[in-house]
Amino acid sequence: MIIKYYYDLYDAALSGNIKWVDFFMKRGANYYDEGLSGAIQSGSLEIIELMIEKGIDDWNHGLYAACLIKDAELVEFMIDNGANNLDRALYGACVGGSLEIIKLLEEKGATNWNSGLMGACFGNHLNIVKKMLKYGAKNFNDALYSACEGGHLELAELMIEYGANDFNTGLGHACMSGSLELVELMITHGAKDWDFGFISACYGNSIDLVNLMLDRGATDLKKGLDAACKNGNLEIINLLIEKMIEKDIKIPNTLHVKFSIHAHTKTKTVKNI
User: Fold this and answer.
1) Cα torsion 219, 256, 272, 263: sign
2) pLDDT (tens digit per residue) in 97-147
3) How remote is the C-alpha of 179 from its chain's centroid?
4) Phi/psi at 71 (nearest 5 deg)?
5) Which of 11-25, 88-102, 207-221 has the lowest average pLDDT?
6) How many C-beta atoms surround the C-beta of residue 224 within 10 A?
7) pLDDT at residue 7, as a whole number
């Protein structure tokens, strides 16, 4: 039961709804560390205080969240209470774009500039990207993936200038972001893993990119359907079911697919299930 409500407590705290937090806690949810993270991101002081009152085992969740929302006082509070995962915190600070918190983490001993580069590329902060490069960050492919997933063309191009060359993986992240410009950039540089791009587009909810990857030669409809069902995009689900029926491919009867197929069959007749 506790595991069942793990993410529910986080999501309830993230919504800032104290009634939902109370609802899940009464049903056994006690992952207060994750609840603290959600509460910090929502800005709910009431829920933050409740999670702390219940007892925090790992303050690193709170530290990361505080870095994301650029709250330097909360960052110091989390560190004072024992948070010590400075590498993850640095990533969060670079996503958030706070130079003040980045400096604070440096003073506390953070040195993973590669992590910082990834965060800055995902958060679209060119000034911090340059800072991480100056400090010696060299994980250009990882940073390319982050820029692509964040949907940031300029930073993706910059990472390519620095030597990033894994364009197939970049294609997947670009498809997940829904950015046609980034997809075209990856293809221009030789990306050809259409199935990876297709599955990522299905998960990322871009039907235009789903169709583009199919036109390019993607064939793994089952994994695409699985990805689309996880995000519940009925438009993509319906498209893939039609494609599978046309090709006489058996539709997986897995638990998370059932609901989507049920919704589809209100207007369609699905065979071969």
Assistant:
1) negative
2) 999 999 999 999 999 999 999 999 999 999 999 999 999 999 999 999 999
3) 15
4) -110, 95
5) 11-25
6) 27
7) 53
**HSE-CB of 5 using CA atoms within 13 angstroms:** 19
pLDDT at 4 over 60: no
- How many angstroms separate the CA atoms of 225 and 25, rounded? 34
pLDDT tier, 163 (very low <50, low <70, confident <90, very high otherwise): very high
Inform me whether the pLDDT recorded for 264 exceeds 70: no
Handedness of CA 245, 247, 248, 251 (dihedral sign): negative
**Rounded CA separation 208/199 (Å):** 13
The rounded radius of gyration (Å) of the Cα atoms in the chain is: 21
- Map tokens 């709170």 to a residue: 62
With tokens 């603290």, the residue in question is: 36
Position of tokens 């609840």? 35
CA separation for the pair 19, 40 (Å, rounded): 17
Output the pTM of the full model. 0.86
Q: How many whole angstroms separate alpha carbon 130 and alpha carbon 241?
A: 46
Q: How far apart are CA 40 and CA 13, in angstroms?
A: 8
CA 220 to chain centre: 23
Q: How far is CA 56 from CA 21, 30, 52, 62, in A?
A: 16, 10, 6, 9
Instruction: Tell the residue number behind the tokens 């259409």, with chain if given.
Output: 194
